[in-house]
Request: fold
Amino acid sequence: MGHYNMFAGRSAERLAALSDGVFAVAMTLLVLDLHAPAAEAVHSEADLLAALWLLAPRLLVYMLSFMTLGIFWVGQQTQLNFVTHSDRHLSWIHLAFLFTVTLMPFSTALMAEFIAYRAALVLYWLNILALGAIVFASWAYLERAGLLKPDVAPGIGKAVRRRVIVAQALYALGAALCAYSTLASLGFIVLVQLNYAVAPRIGLLQRL
Reply:
């Protein structure tokens, strides 16, 4: 068993390829919760616009989840680009990460269906929290196991940890807003996601 552990799961390229496939499927499944208005319920332009307006909350949650997965895909691929090779423990850490990725379509559908309920919002946030926690644990393991490339600057690790901690603190603040309104909560999380997706170049947001 000891010898097996020495050579199991050493290919970072295979791990990245598996991750690409899982993310692609999860991101595709998100859109399956969006359904065009039923034709029998639409008899005019006004009916169609009204039906599309009712679809807006689902579209908002879909957009939020797509950005979430996009941001974490970029984060994971960035980490894997820094490693010399993988090992069995890193592979299982990333498999745990991919497990939380596959939960995103479910938590998204739950949030879209029960958008006014705090429990749905909290479960959705816990999904994001799990993603961030495993990304943080993955980087900590890379440093501890000596799997990083020799040319990785010392400040990279500090920047990665700060980014994850700040992002998760902002997500937690957004989740806490559900005590006031779940829509306010989602709106705040959308702003956080836009910051990390668009990477603005001004003020405090530039450093997050």
About this structure: Residues 2-207 form one domain.
